[in-house]
Amino acid sequence: MIYLDNSATTFPKPDIMYDFMSDFYRKHGVNPGRSGFDAAIETEEIVFNTRRILTDLFNGGRDSNRLTFSYNATDSLNIILQGLSEKGDHVLATTLEHNSVLRPLYCMQQQGIIDVTYIPFDNAGYIDPDDIRKAIQPNTKFLICTHSSNVIGTVQPLSEIGKICKEAGIIFVVDGSQGAGAVQVDMQASNIDVYIFTGHKCLMGPTGIGGSYVREGIVIRQTRYGGTGVRSAYPAHLETYPYRLEAGTINLVGIAGLNAGVKWVLEKGIDNLHHQEILLWNKLRLALQEIDRVILYCATGIENQNPVLSFNIQGFEAADVGAMLDVDYNIACRTGLQCAPKVHQQLNTADIHGTVRLSLGPFNTEADIDTTIDAIKDIASITRKGRWGKV
Questions:
Q1: Which of 65, 69, 79, 267 is most exposed, with minimal Cβ within 10 Å?
Q2: Are 216 and 207 in contact (CB under 8 A)?
Q3: Radius of gyration (Cα) for the chain, nearest Å?
């Protein structure tokens, strides 16, 4: 299989991740923070070490305990967005957002808690910081913005956006699901107040683990309560980090896998991995541009771009193209709206059931790209009647 669905989850993972997860859980599969015996202490050390590595990776701050774990980015986005929002708040978001952002905001808007303004992206797929400046209202509480689009791969100008948020006194929240581990991020330099990540994508960890880093001074209202193993006689859930946003037993084996995955990424080098992937992406982009009837979306160049490419073939449903790539060529990709409906509304692809998305990862090769180009050429050469009429 040629796997080109890395925006959904990177696959395969480095062998070191699989091996470390198994070995660690066999030897240290005990509950950290609850007991004082050696295995529990050693387990807690791995958990804290992972907090520290990610805090350093994001340049979040001095307190690694403010790096908290959850099920995934969706889980953390719900915790953060609901924990920040209060009745009467105005919130800014972008039309690039994933449903992990859109649906919590929609729910709170329907409940009458918040009002939301969505900032559109430009023709190349980027948010203009000036559009954000113009949309800020007196009661704007925070802005939520994706680090990189999961549909078109554009990496947003976080530093410019963060500067505007700081000047306006609003909280800057970044959904780093597609950015963490793919491109560099500096929370302090970009004035990012909350950065949300997931482990199973470019950080090369397993599914079921994610989290966030919340900078000092940002107050997230607690929405979960339970055991922490600390101050058990105290009736209220602890307000200190990491316990403030964590309740109950954490996903220990997931954290172990994430620990190994991040170390692999750091060893290889984020910039090195990105350079390797974007060269292959650019080869794919340039080749598809030359194929008759192939339509690319916001694929303008390699600057501020992750290796994600969305396209359609005139005369074909995206789902049909994806099925042919799978069945006839053993190429795995993603078709449809990719859980980001507002992107497709703006691209005018919503009514035609979305796009075909090809997303590259660190284990893709030039041979993979050559085969994919040939496959798309073959499909595009077929004459048939589709939504665009007979072609």
A1: 267
A2: no
A3: 22
pTM above 0.90, yes or no: yes
Supply the pLDDT for residue 225.
Answer: 82
**CB of 152 closer than 8 Å to CB of 308:** yes
Q: What is the set of domains in the chain, with CATH numbers?
A: 2-10+269-381 (3.90.1150.10), 15-267 (3.40.640.10)
Q: What is the pLDDT of residues 232-251, one digit of tens each?
A: 777 778 788 898 999 888 99
Residue of 124, 260, 182 whose CA lies nearest to 6: 182
Res 388: pLDDT = 43
Q: Residue 334's beta-bridge partner residues?
A: 357
The candidate with the shortest Cα–Cα distance to 20, out of 217, 239, 206, 227, is 206
**Residue 339 falls in which region: left (phi positive, over 0), alpha (psi -120 to 50) or beta:** left
Upstream peptide bond of 242 is cis (omega within 30 degrees of 0): yes
Sort 371 into a burial class: Cβ within 10 Å, 0-12 / 13-18 / 19+.
middle
Structure tokens at 277: 């992937």
Q: Phi and psi dihedrals of 208, rounded to 5?
A: 85, 15
Q: Which residue has the tokens 């000092």?
A: 216
Q: Where would I find the beta strands (DSSP E) of the chain?
A: 2-3, 67-70, 89-94, 114-119, 140-146, 171-175, 194-198, 210-214, 294-296, 308-313, 331-332, 334-336, 355-359, 385-386, 389-390
pLDDT-based confidence at 299, cuts 50/70/90?
very high
- pLDDT (average), residues 113-134: 98
Specify the pLDDT at position 34: 63
In 10 A of CB 235, how many CB atoms?
6
For residue 35, what pLDDT is reported?
A: 66
Under a CB-based contact definition with an 8 Å cutoff, are residues 349 and 312 in contact? yes
